[in-house]
Write a structure and sequence with these properties.
The protein is an alpha/beta fold. It is built from eleven helices and 27 strands. A hairpin with a 4-residue loop joins strand 14 and strand 15. The structure holds flavin-adenine dinucleotide.
Length: 406
């Protein structure tokens, strides 16, 4: 193989570059990223980076890593087309030939069709550039309205509140983070944010952002309530970057469609990360996951496939979110669960919800309980399903189950 190109310099793209080299690929290797920074950790953008004026971006790997490993970086450049017949990608300012491709194009913020979304002082967060602008604004903001009670909106709401701002969160659904976590977890975080002094409004869809002289001054709800705002943060999810793949004739659905070894409908092209739709081995349907773990592990699988060592992707998904003083950690997918049992007490600020489908443990959501989360990863990886009664009994040592199975 002569040349592998990686499109996208996020978690998946950077991991693919590292894995290809680590696994012995010694041909030409280049990574093309629309962002001008070296690949960096994205999660801190809504966490440490936004809180502290002098916090730096955390690079995934230092510049020397790419030099030492012969990985050509094309930063600040965008792939506009893939010519599969010619084996060439077209860039905004040139073209590069390939023998194989890794698509790691990730996702971008979903821009809701709300009047006023283009006003000044309306922010959305995906990139380092977005985070720098938002951080500068938060230093002087007073009244912050957050549209969307998902992970990123809530992380930013907690930070803004702890910085002393007036904060209102508007969520259209009846509970926070409703797509992903258990109702008990939503309720816990609702109380937590209220305890910080934020105004939390559920079932409150937004009608418009109102402006004066081109700058946001209030958010109007569909019920006609006007909430004054000098800063509006909109966090209502993302859309996968699939256009270049679709225009090249690859199969796409709610993501670039891959098989279990991360191969697209063209055998020379693999894909990984937020942009990818794959058939989930346990759920039995196509999913698209948005997490660092998924991006990194899929990139490893995709690289192995390109090097002729395909393995089915079976990693247990996990994710985290930091809100105020609380760390929420999730492992597994709870979407199809039909019952749950709680270990610990929400009142103590440290508890886990274990989700079952029938007798099978499928996911665990933990609040300030890292040990349960780590154990959960091992239980799910080993397909172990502890008896729910034992899980609810804190005197029972769950670790003993792992020891027994080892
Ligand atoms: P991305 O990181 O989106 O990278 C894709 C890259 O491809 C981008 O640089 C993009 O510019 C580039 N690109 C796209 N199209 C082209 C093109 N045509 N040409 C050139 N370049 C292109 N996950 C967690 O697990 N835990 C967290 O706590 C967490 N917090 C988060 C906080 C924030 C603020 C954000 C935005 C995300 C967070 N995530 C978190 C999600 C996590 O960051 C993503 O799942 C992860 O970044 C996905 O990696 P990726 O490489 O697939 O995509």
């Amino acid at each position: 193989m002569q040349t592998i190109l990686i499109i996208g310099g996020g978690h998946a793209g950077a991991q693919a570059a590292a894995s290809l080299r680590a696994e012995g690929y010694d041909g030409r290797l280049a990574l093309i990223s629309a962002e001008s920074e070296l690949p960096y950790h994205r999660p801190p953008l809504s966490k440490a980076f936004i809180k502290t004026a002098d916090e730096e971006l955390q690079e995934l790997r230092p510049a020397q890593f790419y030099e030492k490993n012969g990985i050509d970086l094309h930063l600040g450049r965008t792939v506009t087309a893939i010519d599969r017949d010619a084996g060439r990608v077209v860039l905004d300012d040139g073209a590069l030939d390939f023998d194989a491709l890794v698509l790691a194009t990730g996702a971008r913020v979903r821009v809701p069709p709300v009047p006023g979304i283009d006003l000044g002082n309306v922010f959305m967060l995906r990139t380092a550039e977005d985070a720098r602008r938002l951080r500068a604004r938060l230093a002087v903001a007073e009244d912050v309205v957050v549209v969307g009670g998902g992970f990123i909106g809530l992380e930013l709401a907690a930070t803004a509140r702890l910085l002393g701002k007036t904060v209102t969160v508007l969520e259209a659904a009846p509970r926070l983070m409703g797509r992903v976590v258990a109702p008990q977890i939503s309720a816990f975080f609702l109380d937590m944010h209220r305890g910080l002094g934020s105004s939390m409004r559920l079932e409150t869809p937004v009608a418009a952002i109102l402006g004066e002289d081109g700058v946001a001054v209030a958010v109007e709800t569909q019920a006609g309530l006007r909430i004054p705002a000098d800063t509006v943060i909109v966090g209502v999810g993302v859309v996968p970057n699939i256009e270049v793949a679709a225009e090249a004739g690859l199969d796409v659905a709610n993501g670039i469609v891959v098989n279990e070894a991360m191969r697209t409908s063209d055998p020379r092209i693999v894909a990984a990360g937020d942009a990818v739709s794959f058939q989930h081995w346990a759920l039995g349907r196509a999913v698209r996951l948005e997490s660092v773990q998924n991006a990194v592990d899929q990139a490893k699988a995709a690289s192995a496939t390109l090097l002729g060592r395909p393995e089915p992707y079976r990693a247990v998904p996990w994710f985290w979110s930091d809100q105020g003083a609380f760390k929420l950690q999730m492992v597994g997918l709870s979407n199809d669960a039909d019952r749950s049992v709680t270990r610990g007490k929400a009142e103590d600020g440290s508890f886990s919800v274990f989700h079952y489908r029938g007798e099978t443990l499928v996911a665990i959501d933990s609040v300030n309980r890292a040990a349960d989360h780590m154990l959960g990863r091992r239980l799910l990886a080993s397909a172990l399903s502890p008896d729910p009664d034992k899980v609810a009994d804190e005197s029972f040592d769950l670790k003993s189950l792992i020891a027994k199975s080892a």
